[in-house]
Amino acid sequence: MLTQETLCVFVPGKFVYGKKGASAAGLLTVLAAMLGVNIAVGQSHTASQGGEQLSLRAGRLIASWQQSPSGVVLEKIELADGGPVLVGRAPLFVLTLRNLSTGENRTLSSQQGWQQVAFWAEEGAVEIRFGQPAAPFPPTFGALVRVEALAEQSAFSWHIKVPPAGGDFSLWEVRFPILPICELTADAVLVYPKAPGVAEAGVWQRAFEFGGRYPSGWVTMQFGACYVPDGSGGLYMGVHDPWGSTKELRWRSDPATKVVTFSVDYPVPNMGRPEAEFSLPGRVVTQFFEGDWFDAAQIYRRWVEEEAKWFPTLGPEGREDTPLWMRELPLWILGGGAPEECVPGVLRFRQAMGVPCGFHWYNWHQIPFDNDYPHYFPTKPGFAEGVRQLQEGGVHVMPYINGRLWDSRDKGLEDFQFTSVALPAATKNHQGEPFLETYGSKESDGSPVRLAVMCPTTSVWQNKVGELVAELFGRCGTHAVYIDQVAAAAPTLCADPSHGHPLGGGRWWNEGYWQLLEKIRASKPADRMITTECNAEPFVRWFDGYLTWHWQYDRQVPLFPAVYGGSVQMFGRWFGNSGSGRLQAQDERRNRDLSVRMRLAQQLVFGEQLGWIHTTVLEEEQNAAFLKQLAQLRWELRRYFYAGRMGRPPRLLSSVPTVTADWKWGGKSVVTTEAILVGQWVLPGDKRAILLAVNVAEDPLSLTMSAPVGDPWFRLGAGKIVRTWPEKVPLGSIEGGTWRVDCTVPGLGAYIWEVGPSED
């Protein structure tokens, strides 16, 4: 055990370390000469040297590093009490450098290729310095990894810093960390941030991969976790980057070794320039925890509330910068076209449902959809009058615009303003070519519409989006504007030096949109709001709502609502075609009806605003009745979803049958859930909670479940059930802060319990 000033130096073939006194001072002098750096001496009380291995303890965890022939690897992260190994052997990092003369990329890992490696141990931390890589890399190049022990949390905090490469090389990409997660048990679960969150067992035993560029609608947050189903233990892995910088998160299995490797790749700011360097934004945290996905979400939420630049200010009534009508809204309609085609049907739907509605109005403009953007004006005749009629009838209108794309032929087949106005502000690759995308829309000659991705840092794009929103709020009078793709599409690695942002990677993409959206929020009327597509987290503070239409996957859990419930309104699912005239076969009708009910029930317990559904659902008698029941319940409970937050979902104590339907997302998407979906939402300041149970099956089903009421924010103790819906729902009992109920939930029915202080 190294208990005094300690330094460990690796020269090819072995580690060398010194202790306090003349020998340590001499060793420091040698090291400084070797690496050309200044190194301070610290105290070490938690690091130990065993042969050629160094260890660091943080509460219940121990991390160990091991010498390799010409570098260092992470040997393992294990439980200090003799429990299982959580993380196996892997390089600490992989660096990609580009030869600026040849354009060739070369990689260099912590595991090999270094002439000098030095360990520096101090109280609760270890630093590892890498220097003098082998040819062809510049001999002055190096890297520094620092690991801090957070003993109270049983966690390690990881950081890496890489200076400019020097010579003919540019630092291009940094992969850090690389964590091979071991299979804890045969039924261990991995939860990852796909859409709302997906919790999946068995991924260590079969081919599995999830990942992509963050932030986007499919990689929505910067964390995941694995855990044992009985709640006895798990590993949280989170990137605590307060700017939400561009990165690639990935989980990939190796069934042969039964590991799932979690890794993060960062495209480096100013990639391709000699001065490119990298310092990890924020830190990476690996933490042992007890519980499941909900507990992992609370670890991340605590960090988000304290440090994330995008978390909004919350008051007693939630997001008080969002109009109250939006916070309360229970139900959304999807439609569009000319006013005479949609306004009468929307008003009938509003009357049939008996609650306020939002209307997402597509194709209100004369240009085709996904064509000739961003020239949305003039509108179709009568649009402003249609908006007025709907909003006077209790329907809040939200027209569509795109917040990201400019058509490269933006007036039919003509280049109208693209080259003269948009092209300088479009994102471009390192060859100066604009990034173009296609979405299936066609020009009049049948050729694909090619849309350029605009750079959000440019005044051209910021001003254009601001002008469109102002026109819709002003002359058209809409209560809301939907700005498509902002929280859906991943950042583009723009390399146009004229834009003034770092080339490629970094945090500039988010900051550009933050500036764009801040200008809109500062100038809009206080009773108006803006939304966007999907739910990438770094834009929560600047949008009032996220269209969660893509939450369509099997084994979904409300990971995102557990983190962001009460801070942004989540609304809408894609429901596919509706209307009895469109579906003929009985089995197809049965599948559709069940899939509609499954989505609606999941929306309610996840805390979403319901629907984003066509008015033709009124032709589906059973679906319309189920939708109306849940919409009116959500309207009654609305304050929980905007002033509260998600509580731990109840635990099913009885066997509840499952139901399966093809949700037809992307062609075929088979989803299985329990027939009764349950949830909990709490108002911590009021010491109140609601517990929900929704039966999507046609037959009555027995249910026994329990929940720690309000956990982890308050315990009611002597609290009581103060209200139910319907009134004759069995009350159940509360003992010691745990609520338990045994009941039979009617087919296509919903039971709600409200729990409050016993003095109520």
Structural class by helix and strand composition? alpha+beta
Oligomer: single chain
Overall, the morphology is globular
Main sheet summary: 12 strands, antiparallel
Strand segment count: 46
Low-confidence stretches: 1-51
| Average pLDDT reading | 91
* Beta-strand percentage range: 25-35%
| Alpha carbon gap, first and last residue | 59 Å
Fraction in helix: 10-25%
Describe this structure in words.
The termini are far apart. Strand 44 and strand 45 (738-745) form a beta hairpin. With 760 residues, the chain is of the alpha+beta class. The protein is globular and about 75 Å long. The chain is built from 12 helices and 46 strands. The strands form 8 sheets. Strands 1, 2, 11, 12, 13, 14, 16, 17, 19, 20, 23 and 24 form a 12-stranded antiparallel β-sheet that branches. Strands 34-33-32-31-27-26-25-35 form an 8-stranded parallel β-sheet. Strands 3, 4, 5, 6, 7 and 8 form a 6-stranded antiparallel β-sheet that branches.
What layout of secondary structure does this protein have?
Elements lengths: L5 E6 L2 E5 L3 H14 L11 E4 L2 E6 L2 E8 L2 E9 L5 E3 L2 E2 L2 E6 L5 E5 L4 E9 L2 E9 L8 E9 L4 E8 L6 E14 L6 E4 L5 E4 L7 E6 L8 E5 L6 E7 L6 E8 L4 E9 L10 E2 L3 E7 L3 H15 L16 H5 L2 E6 L2 H15 L3 E6 L20 H10 L2 E8 L2 E3 L10 H5 L13 E2 L13 E3 L5 H15 L6 E5 L23 H16 L5 E5 L11 E3 L11 H6 L4 E3 L14 H21 L3 E4 L7 H16 L1 H6 L1 E2 L4 E2 L5 E5 L7 E5 L1 E8 L4 E8 L5 E8 L11 E6 L7 E3 L2 E8 L4 E7 L4
Parallel strand pairs: 25-26, 25-35, 26-27, 27-31, 31-32, 32-33, 33-34
Antiparallel strand pairs: 1-2, 1-11, 3-4, 4-5, 5-6, 6-7, 6-8, 9-10, 9-15, 11-12, 12-13, 13-14, 14-23, 14-24, 15-22, 16-17, 16-19, 18-21, 19-20, 20-24, 21-22, 28-30, 29-30, 36-40, 37-42, 38-39, 40-41, 41-46, 42-45, 43-46, 44-45
